[in-house]
Amino acid sequence: MNSGFRVFHGLPDGGEFGPCAITIGNFDGVHIGHREIFRNVVALAAERGLKPSAMTFDPHPARLLSPEHAPRLLSRPEERCRFMREAGLAQVVIVPFTHEFSLLAAEEFARRILAEGLDARAVLVGENFRFGRGKGGDCARLAEMGERFGFSTTIVPPLRFRGRLVSSSVIRRLVMDGEVALAGRMLNRCYAVDGDVVPGRGVGSKQTVPTLNLRTAAEVLPSRGVYVTRTANLDAGERAPSVTNVGIRPTFDSGALSVETFLLRGLHGEAPRRIRVEFLYRLREEKEYADASELKAQILRDIRRAEDYFQRADRWMKGAAHALGPKAAPGDRLPAG
After folding, report:
1. Residue 3: CB partners within 8 Å, gap ≥ 6?
2. I need a labelling partner for 293 at 20 to 30 A (CA). Which of 13, 22, 163, 310 fits?
3. Which CATH code, of 3.30.420.40, 3.30.2350.10, 3.40.50.620, 2.70.70.10, is assigned to 6-159?
């Protein structure tokens, strides 16, 4: 990880950004395809003595250009920057995507922004990269302009996982369909949402099991159902295995969508005020039960299945650690259910 990592909010003045090797995109979710591009940026930058860099945008361009088709986002800009830092990049520029910026012609973007403003000496993008007013520039035009303006152009091919193209839109759909295990493999980490712990209706502590109720600003939530999860106390840096329900609590006629987490093991210290819920595996869809006792019996079965999952995951991790030694897979990479 780069300890000197810098984030520029807006295009920097002067020559403090370059000379750089840079990639450009929205990078929503920062999935394994994005990380492959970052790996190429870091390698090329090291080879040529450049600063490994990225340009991203806030808000997402579609929110200005086509708001009715703008996607729900998997990650906030600060989260993307953290993942980019972990991938080895030295700096990121977050460009405010304004109406004025959207009107830049492709050649003006390549010359004024990349070559002159950022001192780009190498540009690496995916093969579907488009840029400039009306998406008038493509990879071929970028390469041609690079020859004129002094930067090389590298096209990084798309990545496939189990025969499926890896993309933010694919991952978004997987999460919204409840396929969080496959989404996690494409992200190379668990899909997670965070926010404040808020008071519930008190039903769980009295009639079923006590839960932490999450209020989140996340734009993408898994489909209604029950999931094996891990819940982290963001104030204390501790996390515990858990079972989480995303739904409307039909047994109690709630109607409002909620995210409720039951901890399989308690967290130390004071009750958490801010938590992050990491989704590992979908157990079942949300159902309506005849009464609270029937629901509680089902919750207890869900808890036993979640405990079995973590026991199997622990055995898998120990086997991986024995086989791979110091290269053992990190804890986020757990087997599917």
Report:
1. none
2. 310
3. 3.40.50.620
